[in-house]
Design a protein that fits this description.
Length: about 325
Amino acid sequence: MQSFTLAAPNGLDAATDAGGRGGRYIAGGTDLLQLAKDNVETPDRLIDLEPLPLTDITVTDDSLRLGAMARMSEVAAHPAVVARWPVISQALLASASPQIRNMGTIGGNLLQRTRCGYFRDTGFACNKRVPGSGCPAREGENRMLAILGTSEHCIASHASDLAVALIVLEASVDLRAPDGTTRTIPLAELHKLPGDTPHVETTLRPGELITAVAVPASRAGMRSHYLKVRDRASFEFALVSAAVAIDAGAGTVHDIRVAAGGVGTKPWRLPEVEEALRGHPLTPKTLADAAALAGQGATPATQNGFKQVLLRRAVLRALQTATA
Ligand SMILES: Cc1cc2nc3c(=O)[nH]c(=O)nc-3n(C[C@H](O)[C@H](O)[C@H](O)COP(=O)(O)OP(=O)(O)OC[C@H]3O[C@@H](n4cnc5c(N)ncnc54)[C@H](O)[C@@H]3O)c2cc1C
Ligand code: SF4
């Protein structure tokens, strides 16, 4: 592990100024420190976000605002989140372990890196870690990896459960640049497809800090659900997950958002399923017909074709649960 300095900034200005000069932000450290220990990442200057005033969870009639340093466990247990945005709480409780959720933060969770084993082992080539070195996963161990949004250069799946829940809620991300300017982007625009630059994973600009995630209130959000399918019941990443938010008053689907995890190179919205449901009567048949469309355009690798079937079943089950 390369040695590094750790700076404790006395405010947002000092933090983003240091970020603009090449320092790396560290929040809970549950992902970054493991990557540093394994020499997958070699930061020499870390900027501790712990002292910053970014921990608030603010609820109004219209929205939920999660400070970037709010802990996963606090957000999962917040009574308003459980009642009005259950998909967030469920996705977080299905993530990692209680100990990691006590340390891990909302900002850090969204920026965690892929669990592709070749990426995390410097003994192998990997285009994401060393651009141009190759992608052994294409012909190697790829059972856990993506079937949607892949490229010939990378098929790594995105690992965050929370991000999948947040894109069905149409959340946005507040950012602060080193010069003090701020901007807000839809969460759906934060993560990039791998294309021919899989090492460029987000649309963040150099030194940009996530300060908060904002989630609008909606009737669909109140009737939302997260289903995660994995190899063991806890402490495991998704093989496939499905997030659903639905408003189906008087038996007709007015508002529907569906997304999937474990299958995409980024959190993956499923417009083909949404279009098959929007404006239609809520019946067992419409749910089944819509779920059968999930994952159009998938390009499985050698070991993960089973995810196409699993995705359709997970989406159907999540739709049934959210509307039960
Ligand atoms: C054994 C294990 C199992 C896990 N299982 C799951 C799982 O099932 N589902 C799941 O979703 N996750 C899982 N995780 C991942 C875990 O949720 C993340 O490690 C955690 O959320 C990262 O948050 P952190 O605050 O510790 O981030 P850090 O490790 O501190 O940072 C992660 C990255 O985000 C950057 N960063 C952090 N905060 C900010 C910010 N505010 N602005 C800009 N950049 C920032 C850092 O520079 C770094 O690049 C697991 C992790 C482990 C170790
Ligand atoms: S799938 Fe992506 S992360 Fe995994 S080895 Fe290939 S390039 Fe690296």
